[in-house]
Design the sequence.
């Protein structure tokens, strides 16, 4: 604003695109990538240790914090004003407030499946049509799951030409879901591209994926290879089904949270007895699941604001302290749940809607969307997400639980789709895009793994004996590949950016 001599920065409602900031006496710098800020040479390449501990908890860092001291992320739905005298941020859109306002309108679709399905169908169609506006070649990712298939069905309905669809198929049958994608492609006569890749293709791409990573992630290479193959096939813009699980209760955490809520009666027991029960269970079945069970029993309540952070944790505190000499820190997700889910207007929303808020703030925004952005943009591929249209989000948050999830996940979404998808797609087991990481990490990626873990040991972030124990546990099957690989990705990222 030249007249007022001030700067305005704003971030989109859902956090689809990142925006990083660094403020100092020299001024304010900002960028869509952390590495761009580091390239300014105005920032000390120093690791934020509190964020590193949170990374161990959740395998990501939640904004506004980042892994770099002095660098923050502008939160989704916020704007920033800056002039010569001050810098201030303010909220311009909040999903809880918007969802509660929509619920308060008393519309018939709030409590009735038929009107709700009609409303979702109308908004999703319009969202897809808006996101198909492009002067360059565009298409859609098609895994064969409900969400991507729904987007392709809607695209075919509003498009006057064949929709280009892309499926990355894996040569090993146990990881391949291409036949489901072909069912949808055949139904809608799409211009279907099945890109079949071998293990060698993926392995060759992994070092490049790690180099393209602006923020460490254990899942990033998956998105990298899909984006690379899609761009090579001629696509510049792709529509994705990301967001369907978060809005329409597609993850197990939705059912798990309501199951726990129904056991609130257990909180009437004296805390001492609950702790004894938890300790006995941990002794009988040692592991992360038992640790989480004990944490839940020792808590104050089994409402979503209390149980969600525990459900989504990768490691509990005692495991973190075994791994790292870093001092314990506050849990960012627990703090957010107490500040948002437990307060008006979020606490007045249905239970599933509160879980949707948490999923959108945590895993979706700080893992899925961040990975999608950094890995697709590495290939100059723009990914658009119709499910995250704010109007659709507001309606989904306003709908009652019995409409959204009467007996099965995504009941509202499947009702909104009508007969657009065959039962074979709707009833298929949820699979997701997975790779044979365990096999690779014991073979061609073993040196990469040791290198990443050694960086963490050398920087004092990982105890030497803990690193040895972790690797031995992985080799014997006691430790999952994802726990190790996420640490490897963190170590590789720290080394690449020369952080101390």
Sequence:
């Amino acid at each position: 604003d030249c007249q007022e001599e001030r700067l305005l920065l704003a971030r989109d409602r859902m956090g689809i695109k990142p925006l990083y900031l660094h403020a100092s006496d020299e001024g304010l710098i900002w960028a869509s990538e952390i590495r761009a800020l580091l390239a300014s040479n105005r920032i000390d390449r120093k690791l934020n240790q509190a964020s590193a501990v949170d990374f161990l908890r959740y395998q990501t860092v939640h904004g506004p914090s980042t892994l770099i001291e002095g660098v923050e992320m502008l939160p989704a739905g916020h704007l920033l004003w800056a002039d010569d005298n001050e810098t201030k941020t303010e909220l311009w859109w909040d999903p809880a407030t918007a969802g509660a306002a929509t619920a308060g309108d008393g519309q018939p679709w709030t409590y009735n499946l038929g009107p709700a399905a009609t409303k979702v169908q109308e908004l999703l169609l319009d969202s897809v049509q808006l996101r198909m506006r492009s002067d360059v070649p565009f298409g859609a990712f098609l895994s064969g799951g409900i969400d991507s298939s729904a987007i392709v069905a809607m695209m075919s309905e509003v498009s006057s030409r064949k929709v280009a669809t892309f499926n990355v198929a894996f040569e090993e049958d146990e990881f391949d879901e291409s036949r489901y994608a072909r069912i949808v492609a055949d139904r809608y006569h799409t211009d279907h591209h099945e890109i079949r890749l071998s293990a060698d293709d993926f392995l060759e791409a992994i070092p490049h994926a790690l180099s393209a990573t602006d923020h460490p992630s254990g899942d990033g290479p998956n998105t990298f290879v899909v984006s690379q193959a899609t761009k090579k096939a001629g696509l510049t813009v792709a529509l994705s089904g990301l967001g369907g699980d978060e809005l329409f209760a597609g993850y197990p955490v939705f059912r798990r949270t309501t199951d726990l809520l129904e056991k609130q009666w257990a909180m009437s027991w004296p805390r001492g007895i609950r702790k004894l029960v938890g300790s006995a269970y941990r002794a009988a079945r040692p592991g992360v699941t038992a640790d989480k069970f004990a944490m839940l029993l020792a808590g104050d309540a089994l409402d979503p604001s209390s149980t969600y952070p525990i459900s989504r944790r990768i490691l509990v505190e005692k495991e973190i302290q075994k791994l790292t000499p870093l001092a314990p820190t506050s849990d960012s997700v627990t703090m957010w749940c107490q500040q948002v889910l437990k307060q008006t207007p979020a606490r007045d929303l249905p239970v599933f809607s509160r879980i949707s808020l948490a999923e959108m703030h945590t895993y979706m925004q700080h893992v899925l969307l961040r990975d999608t952005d950094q890995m697709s943009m590495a290939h100059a591929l723009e990914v658009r997400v119709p499910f995250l249209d704010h109007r659709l989000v507001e309606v989904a948050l306003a709908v009652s639980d019995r409409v959204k999830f009467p007996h099965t996940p995504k009941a509202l979404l499947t009702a909104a789709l009508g007969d657009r998808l065959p039962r074979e797609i709707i009833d298929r087991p949820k699979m997701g895009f997975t790779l044979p990481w365990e096999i690779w990490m014991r073979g061609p990626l073993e040196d990469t793994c040791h290198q990443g873990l050694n960086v963490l040991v050398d920087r004092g972030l990982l105890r030497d004996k803990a690193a040895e124990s972790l690797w031995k546990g992985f080799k014997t099957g006691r430790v999952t590949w994802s726990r190790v690989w996420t640490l490897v990705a963190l170590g590789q990222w720290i080394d690449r950016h020369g952080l101390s």
About this structure: The longest strand covers residues 164-170. Residues 351-377 form the longest helix (27 residues). The chain has a mean pLDDT of 91.
